[in-house]
Design goal:
The structure is a single chain. By secondary structure, the protein is an all-alpha fold. It is 85% helix and 0% strand. Pfam families: Metal_resist.
């Protein structure tokens, strides 16, 4: 295989990996509207939160919303940098590798902060409420295969 063909194949594989990583990150890490709606419905209408619980959860949600938006912007920037690196190197070179690592770092940070957010809300709940909350979160994280 010639050097040009090999570089083209490497570039296509890197591009496919980047697209796959972005897709998986969006599907697995980003909350979907349905899951978010189900969790919010549970929190705000089915768990019978008292006023103090509702206020604490509202504050937790506002703080996380701001942080999530910042991380989503950082993810878009990381993806743009990855695209630029791929365009410049046309292969899996040091810039592409660094851009992939940065994308993974941002995805990991979003996942960690999402979990911290969930546990912060859970800490506000009574044991019975927490058990229902846990079931809803587990269901959101383990969707049925269709």
């Amino acid at each position: 295989m010639t050097r040009t063909k090999r570089l083209l194949v490497i570039g296509l594989v890197a591009f496919g990996a980047a697209l796959g990583g972005t897709y998986l990150g969006r599907e697995l890490l980003a909350s979907t509207g349905e899951d978010e709606t189900e969790l919010h419905a549970l929190l705000h209408s089915e768990l019978d939160l008292d006023a103090q619980q509702a206020a604490k959860i509202e504050l937790i949600e506002r703080r996380f919303s701001t942080r999530r938006k910042a991380l989503e912007l950082e993810m878009r920037a990381a993806n743009a940098h990855l695209a630029e690196a791929m365009e410049a190197e046309h292969g899996y070179g040091p810039e592409v590798s660094a851009a992939v690592d940065h994308t993974h770092q941002v995805m990991g940070e979003l996942q960690k902060e999402t979990l911290e957010h969930l546990f912060a809300m859970r800490a506000v709940l009574t044991p019975d409420q927490a058990a229902r909350f846990d079931r809803t979160v587990t269901k959101a994280l383990t969707p049925e295969v269709q």
